[in-house]
Amino acid sequence: MSVMTINQENFEKEVLASKAPVLIDFWASWCGPCRMMAPILDELAQKHPELRVGKVNVDEQPELASRYQVMSIPMLILFRDGKPAATSIGLRPLGDLERMLKL
Questions:
Q1: One of 3, 31, 86, 101 is an active-site residue; which one?
Q2: Counting runs of H as helices and runs of E as strands, what totals does the chain give?
Q3: Is 31 in the active site?
Q4: Listing from the earlier edge strand, what are the strands of the sheet with 22-27?
Q5: Domains of the chain: total
Q6: What range does the domain containing 71 cover?
Q7: Residue 90: left (phi > 0), alpha (psi -120 to 50), or beta?
Q8: CA-CA-CA-CA torsion sign (35, 88, 49, 65)
Q9: What is the pTM assigned to this prediction?
């Protein structure tokens, strides 16, 4: 599955109402570690079709960033049943993300 673009309009449907776990990457185009995280998230999405992966651009969606208290990026939040279940800040290797999924 490919990485989705998440915004204020589709957040409820794609994240909060999802039956599958959803990993959201809060990022910005000017952030070097965020750009380095992109291929890792693409690989994660391909290896784990049971997981939905989305990206929220904090510059374009400040309301969502504020709602989830995003202070540093990249920040990943794993949602299960519409609720945050785990959080990770900073560039992480694929193995760390896979371990995060098992929490």
A1: 31
A2: 4, 5
A3: yes
A4: 4-5, 52-57, 22-27, 75-80, 83-89
A5: 1
A6: 4-101
A7: left
A8: negative
A9: 0.94
Report, as an integer, the average pLDDT of 45-51.
94
Q: Domain with 33 in it: what CATH number? A: 3.40.30.10
CB-CB contact of 34 with 4 (8 Å): no
Of 15, 34, 70, 73, the active-site residue reads: 34
CB atoms within 10 A of CB 27: 24
79 belongs to the catalytic site: no
The β-bridge partners of 81 are: none
Q: Which distant-in-sequence residues (6+ apart) come within 8 Å of 13 by Cβ?
A: none
41 confidence band (pLDDT: 50, 70, 90): very high
Residue 58 CB contacts under 8 Å (≥ 6 apart), including other chains: 26, 27, 28, 64, 65, 70, 73
Report the pLDDT averaged over residues 28-50: 96
H/E run at residue 36: helix 32-47
Distances in Å between the Cα of 84 and the Cα atoms of 3, 16, 68 are: 19, 9, 9
